Amino acid sequence: MTAASELLERIRTTQARIGIIGLGYVGLPLxxxxxxxxxxxxxxxxDEGKIAQINAGKSYIPDVPASxxxxxxxxxxxxxxxxxxxxxxxxVIDICVPTPLRKTKDPDLSYVVKAVEAAARVLHRGQLxxxxxxxxxxxxxxxxxPMLEAGGFKAxxxxxxxxxxxxxxxxxxxxxxxxxxKVVGGNGAASTEAACALYSRVVASVVPVSSTRVAxxxxxxxxxxxxxxxxxxxxxxxxxRKMDIDVWEVIDAAKTxxxxxxxxxxxxxxxxxxxxxxxxxxxxxxxxxxxECRFIELAGQVNGSMPEYVVQRVADALNSVKKPINGSKxxxxxxxxxxxxxxxxxxxxxxxxxxxxxRGAEVTYSDPWVGQIHEGHHRLKSVDVDTAIAGGxxxxxxxxxxxxxxxxxxxxxxLIVDTRNALKGMTGANIVRL
Length: 434
Ligand SMILES: NC(=O)c1ccc[n+]([C@@H]2O[C@H](COP(=O)([O-])OP(=O)(O)OC[C@H]3O[C@@H](n4cnc5c(N)ncnc54)[C@H](O)[C@@H]3O)[C@@H](O)[C@H]2O)c1
What we know:
Layout: H1 3-12, E1 17-21, H2 27-36, E2 40-44, H3 48-55, H4 66-74, E3 78-81, E4 92-95, H5 110-122, E5 128-131, H6 139-149, E6 160-163, E7 182-186, H7 189-199, E8 206-209, H8 212-242, H9 247-254, H10 278-288, H11 294-304, H12 306-320, E9 329-333, H13 348-358, E10 362-366, E11 372-375, E12 378-381, H14 385-391, E13 395-398, H15 407-410, E14 416-418, E15 431-433
Parallel strand pairs: 1-2, 1-4, 2-3, 4-5, 5-6, 7-8, 9-10, 9-13, 13-14, 14-15
Antiparallel strand pairs: 6-7, 11-12
Helix pairs in contact: 1-7, 5-6, 8-10, 8-11, 12-13
The structure holds nicotinamide-adenine-dinucleotide.
């Protein structure tokens, strides 16, 4: 039996021991799915707080029900550790660490490099290493492969190597890890086969592609598609305002076309760890080949200008009641980057908050998902909605349309700027839309 066929057999019989590096929004749901499928799973993280919570059966990711997590922990199918030496006991090492941008908008692969260094130290024959972190095309074969091969083993022969982009959409109850098809590109046929065999145990369908580079590019196409289309619809929103047209009504009517149109919605700007960041991984890499990604840069400019535009709408709203931003009390409803998640990464609400404070506003917020904000020098605590309304403010802003807010009640506030069309169908001089 070759090392690859041995691993396939271990996957088929659910004997393969799976190690997941990085137990965040991507890694933890995946670890739980593998454990629920009966695999022996060890999660690796540098955050001792997360490790303690997992081992206590407590979930810190809203999409992972505590009951599912505690069940697999109690059954001994899932545990977490910071001891990277234990990676040596794994048949599969799946890397789900962050891939942020540096201040210069260049890719920051330092987390991936650290995780791969840890894997390289313990690499043994027959292991399958998969990178899931979103990154530029070429990362797996130009960065990961040489690091793993430095000890003398050869990828695709002695050990297997693949890239499989994660497509999880936090807060989306309709499509969870299990239901989302998984794209897999291996370093050679044996690597692709092993990674496909593994994922087909936990996800509904697996889509093999010809190489790791194709798989890396698939993810960047998907996220660039979103960033560019959101940029387009934000621009349409800005021009519609100038032409006194309700952009939300336009989109609702346009989406009745059964083909050739897909709705995207304007908003206060891009947020999260993916859409504002990933396209710049692609433009950085393309630039190395002498190619300028014009769509990505333009979408970045339009989307990046939206918080400023929201502040302008707030200024217009206050102006209509003869008040300036300076000295006004402004209350934000929702600060997470999108509805019904607790993720604050790159949240445009933070930019809106910062811009309002800089203009002299007294800003407070309510968010059932985010108890406090530490932004720059600002330390704010979420105020319960009743207390906030009872205290009064000059203007409210719906920055994130969480399901928990009572929108009929918010529509009664004296002045409210709605950046998400959460007050759809409600009218009044007090309501100002994006
Ligand atoms: N969040 C999403 O919606 C989403 C969706 C698809 C893809 N992705 C991609 O998946 C990757 C992970 O994103 P995420 O949102 O899960 O990030 P996250 O920050 O929620 O989780 C990453 C985890 O990795 C840990 N970590 C960092 N360095 C480590 C190391 N050297 N060893 C072990 N653990 C380490 C962190 O402590 C953290 O717990 C990124 O590349 C992201 O672009 C994210």
